[in-house]
Each structure stands twice: as structure tokens, then as C-alpha cells.
């Protein structure tokens, strides 16, 4: 089904198709690559360079999406990026989390030749009560202009966390759970 859908989407010239199959089905990526010109991306659910090794050397994947918060941090993901660069595979780090994770991703992006886009969750629909900018002393550090953001220049990751806000939110406790989204027909949609 992924093969048929990918072919149907080609006229729209998508930037990429993300995880047309689960990453566990590594052998399928090479087969899917034969049937589309649209770049294929995956990797947000991989946790180390060894998890990425088969994706990198196996062909079929054009863009890797490691999540620094899950795949070992800046240094481990930099190693993944270097391996990918040797195979002409681009990087689009996964980052649906807070300002510290985004700042870490930007530090990686700015020193990674094969980084081409950065996912981020500023003002996204699931940040209902607060946005990740609320946790920064200076939210302008992530001000985007024409789709681009500058490298944060302060010490460390280049951001200063609003500790008062963190303490305030920590007193509320957490009742976080995956949202349940439904299609028009009532069936459950994966988020």
C-alpha cells in the first residue's frame, strides 16, 4: 500500500515521505526506493548509531531523523550524521520536545554539513497550555525569519531557561498521555 500511495503523491513533489513503513521493516525501504522519486525519511524511533547502520548502508533511505533526546545526545547523533554523510544521506533531526532539545539540535545542525531541515514544535497544536518559548528567559533566541533561525550564541546551548516557569509548572504535576485523534469516520488516527 505504501508503494502505491508514494507513487500517487509524486505529482505533489513532496519534500519527503516520512516513515512509509515502520523502521523495523528495514528491508522494505530499498524496495520502496525503487518505486518513487520522492525522498524517504525515517529514524525518529532509533536509539543509537548501530540502529542507524543498516538504514545507512542498506540503501533506500534518503533522510535520517534521529531524535537527540533518544539517540544519545549531540555527540552520538553527530556520529550518526557523519556515517550518513559518507553515503550522501541527509539529516533532519526529530525534535517535538522543549527548548533544551531544540537548542541541542540547532548546535548539531550548524556543525553538520548534511543537515537540511530542523523539526521543531513552536506553536504546534499539541502545545495547548504552554509553548516551549514560555520556558526561556529570552524567547527571541528561537525567532524564525523567512523559515530560518540563527544559532543561539549564549554560553552552553545558547539559551537561558526560565527556572521560575519550570518550578511553577512542576507544581502542577503531569498527567501527560498520548492524544487520541480520530479520523472523520471515528477510527483512531496515529499521532
Structural class: alpha/beta
How does the major sheet shape up? Answer: 4 strands, parallel
> How does CATH name the architecture?
Alpha-Beta Barrel
Measured as a percent range, the helix fraction is 25-40%
The unreliable regions are none
| Count of all domains | 1
Could you name the CATH topology?
TIM Barrel
Strand content: 5-15%
Distance between the termini: 19 Å
How many H/I helical runs?
A: 6
Number of strands: 8
CATH superfamily grouping: Enolase-like C-terminal domain
Evaluate the radius of gyration. 18 Å
Q: Determine the oligomeric state from the structure.
A: single chain
CATH class type: Alpha Beta
Spatial shape = globular
Could you give the order of the helices and strands? HEHEHEHEHEEHEE
Average pLDDT value?
90
Strand order of the largest sheet: 1-2-3-4
